[in-house]
Amino acid sequence: MTPATPAPGTRPPRRLPLTWLGILPFLIFVTLFLILPTAHIVIGAFQDRSGAFTLQNIRDLNTGTIPSSYWISVKISVASAALGCLIGFAMAAAVTFGAVPRWIKAPLMTFSGVASNFAGVPLAFAFLATFGPVGLVTVFLRNNFGIVLQRDLGFNILSFWGLTITYLFFQIPLMILIITPALEGLRREWREAAEVLGATGTQYWRMIALPILFPSLLGTFALLFANAFGAVATAIALTGSSLNIVPIQLYAQIRGDVLGNPNLGYAMAFGMIVVTAIANLIYIWLRIRAERWLK
Description:
Layout: H1 24-45, H2 56-59, H3 66-96, H4 105-115, H5 121-131, H6 136-145, H7 149-153, H8 160-184, H9 188-196, H10 201-229, H11 233-239, H12 246-254, H13 262-294
Membrane topology: Multi-pass membrane protein
Pfam families: BPD_transp_1
Transmembrane segments: 20-46, 78-100, 120-141, 153-183, 203-225, 232-252, 264-286
């Protein structure tokens, strides 16, 4: 028997392609753990305790210590992103252009893939066990050289630079992962042409390579900034309440204390979403421009 043909003027029923089933779990995951929580935060930022619409939570972001907490978070994010870009670029360039043995590249990329996702309580514990008051490095320097980190060098892991250095553990590997493909996209013919025309290595980097890589570098800086600005678990586990940054203030508002205001916490989280969204959009835009250059 032949299958029945649809009547003239009627359309066959649309069927969802089977290829969509492969990304269905991803869509469900994004909806449940990204879109819905973000929508809940945005809605809560514009509600009072009774659920009525209000703009007071947004106005309160300019009161108390909240503005200073945003400023400290921005400074930590800028410092860790800048240092991460500088160190990560140097390491990626070294393994890409053969300044170090070629066999180091595969282990470095593997480690970068793991370390770029290593954060939260384990990372905080690792740095406390290393640079804390009774950490391995702290005790070693004190017992063998008489050097006290906080007294002699002014270093405290529970401080601005302590948190910045901790963030570098995942900022540098992320920079290596992102910038290495861009460095590999630099064509050898460009350098050979520059050398034929009499350009030195410094002139090649200053006038050819770095202008081509600039969108990638600036975009990666924006991504690292967003990555550090949105880091919550590491900051809370490492510094507790000793450093006035946005994630810690947000935690204090929503954890249910008597003086806490969950809706103000939602507004602070909404502010963090806006900042990280702008940084990510800058990264996406610059990444598209960089890909056009490399093509």
